[in-house]
Amino acid sequence: MDLDAATTAKFLEAFQKIKKAENILLVTHERADGDAVASLCAIIDLLEGLGKKHTAFCPGEPINQFSFLPHTEKIIFKDNYHSLKSSGQRKLPFDFREFDLIIALDCGSLDRTGLAEEIREKSFNQFFVEFDHHLKNGNHSDLEIRKPEAVATSEILYYFLKANKIKITKNIANCVLTGILTDTGNFLYSATSQKAINIASEMLLYGARFPRIVRNTLYNKSLPAMKVWGLALNNLKINKKYNFAFSVLTLAEIEKFSPDENEDVFDSISGFLSNLYGVKGVLFLREEKGGKLKGSLRSAHPQVDVSRLANKLGGGGHAKASGFVLGGKIEKEGNNWKII
User: Fold this and answer.
1) Domains of the chain: residue spans and CATH
2) CA geometry: angle at 290 spanning 312 and 72, to 5°?
3) Phi, psi dihedral angles at 74 (to 5 degrees)
4) Contact 195/163 with Cβ under 8 angstroms?
5) Could you report the per-residue pLDDT of 184-230, keeping only the tens digit for each?
């Protein structure tokens, strides 16, 4: 990616804000995937090298398969944001007022940070920086560094490091490579770019351990997770009218095998289904507790933009990978499903 003067200026400004800050809050999204956790850990490594006081927060449970990344033990994970929000409580594991700089990484939507209310207010002279490769969603950032053409937020952080001539440590190299690999399905997804492959090669030169990353992110699926995979494949159908594939999992089907909630099962299924040959796109729809339906849309077709459908359904994302959340339940009727 060729960085224009405006983007380079943003990278330089972000680093100046980091160097001047007294206390920094890092935050990523709920149900953090590999790119989200890796981006968080990369910035933690940078801040520790600078001797900066910081706190890292993720509004969800830790994903066990990413525990191999450096500094994950320093991340505050908390999974009660939605229950607290619905009950009208605002109890956080830290004092939000103590931070003068807030950095959001890979969040996509402010509502996924668990801190939307606090960030929107920012009533304590706080500066908010956002690094993201998702499409724009809101105007809450004081400094927005957004590159939807990047395959991962980790890729954007690589450019940030390069622009500021920051040394890439072995820890950071492992984080950047993990983020790129997980968001490209180990370079299998259509979003994979030559630049991402070049960055990955460079991270190997800095000491990133490719076999360890693949072993922890690709080859460590549990038996319950594999059974859920099998069920998703068994439920896979193609709508011949639109040449669009879809698979549906009801809550009862998911709970039958009880996959570990701390395992990144469903995102990996969505990515895998996107490899289906000859279709224009794929929808993976699953039922969640609390009367919610989560949909993941994927496409490798050059003329299909699944983000347009996701946006119509209140979600968002990229042209080739998007998602949405709806209210409702799935009911099976013979070999078909309906939303009620």
Assistant:
1) 5-217 (3.90.1640.10), 223-339 (3.10.310.30)
2) 90
3) -95, -5
4) no
5) 888 877 778 999 999 999 999 999 999 999 998 877 777 887 888 89
